């Protein structure tokens, strides 16, 4: 792969991961056009995914620190409750247990954990089908057009007001199922998860934040899964270096796009992205039949 091609793919990944236009669809289309070696494209995808993961960690570092801190405190409280249960049983006492979900950050951690479960299961179940879908242009083209339909619907969903304390575990699980479908190229993870969050009545700003925080385990899982699919190293030092540069480009551009997306969601501008997805999807479909 040429350095210019790698940088183009990295920048495209950074832009499309955090805008509702499907990073997987754009990468699949460009990699088919560039005719990349399969093993190298798997390694490259893993690196640029890690680049966009760094963007999320940087943009939401305060929230992520608080979530992890409260998760650790929650585990500590669970252990303390076990001690209290043993003490109460032994001494025939009724000592009060610690409250586990005592604030929004603990509830947010629980919601993200529940959403990740069905996404991970679907990712493992569909990995062979996803690999086959990404090897041609027609599948990502259809995925992009499906994304366009979802984005048009999202523009007409009225604003909700739910924050973590108002969201049920059932809603979190439903969001996770819908995110799992986005492993197929062309279906926007960002677009689908934000739309589903809005359907469940989330506050518009919280919908974006939840979608991006949910990207942390999903992007990390995708990168690990892609790396485990490599039959052997087979990657030269030059290819690894080019991939790291592309990952850096994806991370920098992705960070800027996260900030942009936070303002877009407030203005209900999904229909413009829907038009874009439909045009790119139709062009990719036409090109697949032409070659």
UniProtKB/TrEMBL annotation:
Return the EC number: 3.6.1.27
**Main location (coarse class):** membrane
Q: Which reaction does it catalyse?
A: di-trans,octa-cis-undecaprenyl diphosphate + H2O = di-trans,octa-cis-undecaprenyl phosphate + phosphate + H(+)
**What is one cellular component GO term in this UniProt entry?**
plasma membrane
Q: Which InterPro entries match?
A: UppP
Keyword Manganese assigned: no
Q: A Gene Ontology MF term for this entry? A: undecaprenyl-diphosphatase activity
Q: In terms of domain of life, where is this protein from?
A: Bacteria
The protein's topology relative to the membrane is: Multi-pass membrane protein
EC top class named in words: hydrolase
What keywords were assigned to this record? Antibiotic resistance, Cell membrane, Cell shape, Cell wall biogenesis/degradation, Hydrolase, Membrane, Peptidoglycan synthesis, Transmembrane, Transmembrane helix
The subcellular localization recorded is:
Cell membrane
Any single GO BP term? cell wall organization
Where is coiled-coil annotated?
A: none
Report the Pfam families cross-referenced here: BacA
Membrane-spanning intervals of the chain: 38-60, 108-126, 138-157, 240-258, 270-290
What does the record give as the function of this protein?
A: Catalyzes the dephosphorylation of undecaprenyl diphosphate (UPP). Confers resistance to bacitracin.
What extra comment accompanies this record? Bacitracin is thought to be involved in the inhibition of peptidoglycan synthesis by sequestering undecaprenyl diphosphate, thereby reducing the pool of lipid carrier available.
UniProt similarity note: Belongs to the UppP family.
Q: What is this protein called?
A: Undecaprenyl-diphosphatase
